[in-house]
Amino acid sequence: MNPNFTQIKKQCSKLFILLCLVFSFSNSYAQCPVDVIISLDGGGNTIAVAGGATINVTGTYSVANDNSCPSCIQQLIIGIDSVASSCIYDNIPGVCPSPSTGSINTTLTAPLSQGIYTIWVNNPYNFSCTLGDYSGPTGNGALAIGTIYVDCPPQVSISLNGGGNSITVAPNASVTMTGTYVLSNPTGCPSCIQQLIVGIDTVALDCIYDNIPDVCPSSSNGTLNVAFTAPAAEGTYTLYSNNPFNFSCTLTDYTGATGNAAQIIGTLTVACLPEINASLNGVNDTLVVSPGTVVSLDGNFSISNPSSCPSCIQQLIVGLDTVATACIYDNIPDVCPNASVGTFSEQITAPMDPGTYPIYVNNPFNFSCTLSDYTGASGNGAMVIAVLIVECLPEVNITLNGGGNTITVAPGTVITVGGDYTLSNPQSCPSCIQQLIIGVDTVPADCVYDGIPDVCPSQTIGTIASTITAPVDTGVYTIYANNPFNFSCTLTDYTGMNGNNATAIGTITVSSTIGIASVEGQSSMKIYPNPNSNRFILEFESNASSQAGIEISDYLGQVVYQEEFATAAGKIQKSVNTGNLDNGIYFVRLVTKEADNVIKLLIVK
Question: What is the pLDDT of residue 521?
Fold first, then answer.
């Protein structure tokens, strides 16, 4: 045999083996190729964004080692064109046909310049992940996995009726859309005239921009304020912005979802929800009361059945926090857009514990009204219709000259003030020092309490025994109680209707038609002895024969003695028996044709 032939045969065998290895490697690679699938901002793998925008990248990958290198360390690096972004895999994958799989959750930053950019994944083999191993389309195992279009798309952000961009309203309700927009011209058309038109579904509402905006990456910014009427039919409607390029704004250029650069900017749901208007004690929907106070809850409602259930039975149940109070509606209402209307009047007892309590209405659908269907904030169709704030407020009740809290007197008359008060410290300040000061309009009269009251819901109760001098000018004056918190009682803390916890507790009408009054210390009226034990002499001057009256009141304003007697002109001395009166402070009132006078009397036995 020719030795040259033998040598050639060996060489051919080696070449055949090498070709087999190459084929084997190629075949095994082809069986487990790298696979990367991505979603950009929750959509597909193609997106149009403004320059510099942050793009959320999610997805999955699959990578495997070849049988010839079961312990190879591999990496998966993604980037935009030739710029690496992040390493999404760095490990020893399973051996084909058992690849390693995983999820992707990273971000990319769009280039600043306008253009079309490709997202690549590279698959280097290295001891650890180094972004320098990424080279985009020329990188090892380069695979195009997405596309980014960078321009300056219009951006419109809205608020509906002052809330978010998604609200529910009644049919034909008035809706106000406010917000902002950003708009740019492409570099290829710096003088293009653009429009921004907003609409609901396929119905155009308003043109919010019609001009030549700045060129990208600069932008023109502005605000929008569009009022419109919700559709009459129930349903969910989409609000769009369209961005036509035209010589002027024409609403017919708006086509909703199919319009140029159409964007969803909001959602409007039209439904006939129950509407309830409520007031507490006939004032408003927020009230501050003391623990245990009975409060009236009054108002009106409108309610409708959905068109999908015209015979549904509905209920409206009101309650305080999680406690049901009453069922104010239980029937089959009219079908939307019509509504059944009604009124309600209920009573609610304030809790004993201080705090803020919402009053809810729940709207269950049941065969009949069951208060157990009410669960407060978590109830069906739960709405807050009022708020009850429970605090231990000062309460002051007075009598004027032993009568009610309203009196008509002559200018300068000294008026006896009796009554009682309740006072508590808040739980947040159990040792606070409080005062109660009474006065007429802005003029303080007396400090009737100065101490540390019990903590709410407990109360400190006391009585009032004081006097107030009527103003010298005729008119109607209000008696107020102020409740300052200070280290001691200072009458300058009283400011009338503007004082802390100011409460109107009485009214004085000063009239010139009443006989001229004398102030104690300036009157001809005298009492002696004072203090006394069982009898005193009342001395005064009378200008003519007439009738006079004596009235003695205790510190609570209760009349304990009354007597009428005849007088002659001159000095009058009247003896009054006080033997049946207990020790204490009293107020002696003398009423004559000429005057109405009061003097303080002390009984000591």
Answer: 38
> Is the same domain home to 291 and 359?
yes
Same domain membership, residue 47 and residue 130 = yes
CA neighbours within 13 Å on the CB side: how many for 430? Answer: 4
* Full residue range of the structural domain in which residue 23 is found: 1-28
Question: Looking at the predicted structure, is the pLDDT value of residue 371 above 90?
Answer: yes
Three-state DSSP at 25 gives helix
Residues 442 and 375 in one domain: no
| Beta-sheet strands, E only, within 19-154 | 35-40, 46-49, 54-63, 74-80, 83-91, 100-109, 115-122, 143-150
Question: pLDDT digit string (tens) for 2-22?
Answer: 444 344 344 434 433 333 333
CA distances from 369 to 58, 65, 287, 290, 386 (A): 50, 68, 28, 31, 22
239-289 pLDDT, tens digit each: 999 999 999 999 999 999 999 889 999 999 998 889 999 999 998 999 988
Token pair of 44, please?
Answer: 């597909």
Q: Check residues 512 and 561 and name the one with the higher pLDDT.
A: 561
Amino acid at 120: W
Separation of alpha carbons 209 and 244, rounded Å: 10
Q: What is the model's pLDDT at position 514? A: 52
Confidence (pTM): 0.50
Note whether 436 and 506 are same-domain residues: yes
Are residues 383 and 460 located together in one domain of the fold?
Answer: no
Question: Which of 526, 284, 483, 273 is CA-nearest to residue 383?
Answer: 273
Alpha-carbon distances of 281 from 192, 222, 397, rounded to whole Å: 62, 46, 19
Query: Tens digit of pLDDT for each residue in 398-431?
Result: 999 988 999 998 888 889 999 999 999 988 899 9
Q: What is the DSSP string of 363-400?
A: --B-SS--GGG--GGGSTT-EEEEEEEE----EEEEEE
3-state secondary structure of 4: helix
Pairing mode, if any, of strands 54-63 and 35-40? antiparallel
Whether residue 191 is found in the same domain as residue 235:
yes
Q: Which of 104, 135, 150 is the last residue of a domain?
A: 150
Q: Of 150, 183, 213, which one is at a domain's C-terminal end?
A: 150
Cβ distance 28 to 65 under 8 Å?
no
* Cα distance between residue 89 and residue 491, in whole Å: 78
Tokens of 600: 């303080």
CA-to-CA separations, 420 to 249, 464, 558, 598, in angstroms, rounded: 74, 5, 12, 21
Q: Which residues are paired to 108 by β-bridges?
A: 55
Whether pLDDT at 54 is above 60: yes
Task: State residue 4's pLDDT score.
Answer: 41
Same domain, 420 and 488: yes
Distance between CA 46 and CA 102 in Å, rounded? 21
- Mean predicted confidence (pLDDT) in 319-342: 95
Q: Taking the CB of residue 88, how many other CB atoms lie within 10 A of it?
A: 22
Number of domains the chain is built from: 6
Closest CA to 447 of 410, 507, 499: 499
| Cα–Cα distance for residue pair 161/173, rounded to 1 Å | 11
Contact between 213 and 183 under an 8 Å Cβ cutoff? The reply is yes
